[in-house]
Design brief:
Strand 7 and strand 8 form a beta hairpin. Strands 1, 3, 7, 8, 9, 10 and 11 form a seven-stranded antiparallel beta sheet that branches. Strands 2-4 form a two-stranded antiparallel sheet. The radius of gyration is 21 Å and the shape is globular. It contains 14 helices and 13 strands. The protein is α+β, with helices and mostly antiparallel strands. Helix 4 packs across helix 12 and helix 8 runs antiparallel to helix 9.
Length: 433
Amino acid sequence: MQNNGWYLEHTYTQLPEFFYRPQRPASAPAPRMAVFNRALAGELGLDADALEQTPALFAGTDLPSGSVPIAQAYAGYQFGHFTMLGDGRAVLLGEQRTPGGGLADIQLKGSGPTMFSRGGDGYAALLPMLREYIISEAMHALGIPTTRSLAVVLTGGKVKRERIFPGAVLTRVAASHIRVGTFNYAAAFGSAADVRALADYSIRRHFPGLENAKDKYPQFFKEVAARQAKLIAQWQCVGFIHGVMNTDNMAISGETIDYGPCAFMDAYDPDTVFSSIDTHGRYAYKNQPKIGAWNLTRLAESLKGLLTPEQAEAGLAHYWERYRAHYLAEMRTKMNITRESTADEKTIDEFLQDMADNGRDFTQTFRAMSHASPAIIPRNHRVEEALIAAGEGDFSVMHELLSALRKPYEDNEKYAQPPPTGCGCGYKTFCGT
């Protein structure tokens, strides 16, 4: 097999096998490339010309040179309730050593059942995988830390959900797939040594400057908190609603991960919920900062052998301090506030309340005030338009949308417009499982 630029390493398998299981992806009957991210392939040091012609490799039928496929174990607080989870429909092939010297996880999502499938079939339907591709690329263009999508491949198989859909596999690229839920799993089902091993690995992988620090574990918690604070502030400032902020969907790296029932607001309403399963609004737009803190509290509990209560409290206080600083800085830019004042927070709150009272469009309102604010977001009606066309075999609508989303600060009349009056009301998203 040709190398095609693959330089896969497997540092995660240096952890005890308690954290993963060997897992070969299922073979796809008739793989066909749906969309391939040539720019990302180049960033990873891969041969885009060759790999675009190898859909079987991205479907799990064939594997990249040097692959050691595993399914990762983790748990999570789903809507506040602890659950044993794990990669139920995903396989980590390895970590690509990039031209810049970094490591990037290469994961197949929708590649068949694993020992963590919990009764699920392990497969994915085409449209949710395309949705993740679209939204993650939009987030990247907006400068918001995110997992990326390298490819979506039609498997040639069918997936049964509320009806029959074409099956697909998404190749996801991430700084890592270590989650708060990974620590929840280690604390609940492992030993103190397992928690320490995971913390040490996470520090080596993401915070190498802390390796020799005497207080490396409190500093690790503080750094994770700071990354989450910045990430969620960025979400709030573009009107992004993740939709399912369970601890298993919170990456230690500070990247946005697991694009299930996510969407962007049109008219500003802090109570906005898009997820069809979030019936009580736990993960509404206005609650995202608080849920970030709640999830970090669960991380602190999992690290209790490595943190004192005082250190955990200090880390959480740091989260709120950094969140407020990032949020205020970005909102001042969006509102063209050039001189900082202690009254700015009140001014911003009053302006947002006026937006809510009058049903003003979030993105257009801020764009009119400052060109540091994006003109283009993945509007829900445009995303649905692209997915409907793709489901009928026409990918041109999606490619046109992606082209616009990659230039979010450029004016584009077609993609800047909110939905026609009434079309966005009651919009619901689904997790795709």
